[in-house]
Amino acid sequence: MPRFVDRRKSFRGGDRRRYPRLSFELFGCYTSHATGIFFERGNFSLRGMYLPCHFPDLVGTRGTVRLSLPGQNEMLKLPVEVVWADRDEDRGMGLRFDGPD
Fold first, then answer.
1. What is the mean pLDDT of each run of 10 residues along the chain (101 residues)?
2. What is the pTM for the complete model shown?
3. Which of 7, 42, 97, 101 sits at 20 to 30 Å (Cα–Cα) from 20?
4. CATH of domain 3-97
């Protein structure tokens, strides 16, 4: 069952968030010219997603997220851009959806 996450009071300036978060457990991958990351968890909002990872890409990097949705034969493919990266505390990156391919 998906779980909504509200981090508006977090240290990361969450008061800027305009959309609620939805935690997920889906198999997927993020790829860019520099890296490839497989993942099974994170959280979505209407405009993007948080991807936990040890070595996030640099802000401004464009990539693709592919998600395996239950009951679907093909993976959902979403172009994204890295809008923030945390290499210290939470280790992860914020991705903004650019729209479906």
1. 44 57 81 93 86 92 92 91 86 85 52
2. 0.74
3. 101
4. 2.40.10.220
Show the 3-state SS of the chain.
CCEEECCCCCCCCHHHCCCCEEEECCCEEEEECCCEEEECCEEECCCEEEEECCCCCCCCCEEEEEECCCCCCCCEEEEEEEEEEECCCCCEEEEEECCCC
Q: How many CB atoms lie within 10 A of CB 57?
A: 22
> What residue segments make up the domains of the chain, in order of their start?
3-97
Both tokens assigned to 73: 């034969």
Distance CA(14)–CA(51), nearest Å, equals: 16
Amino acid at 66: R
CB atoms within 10 A of CB 86: 15
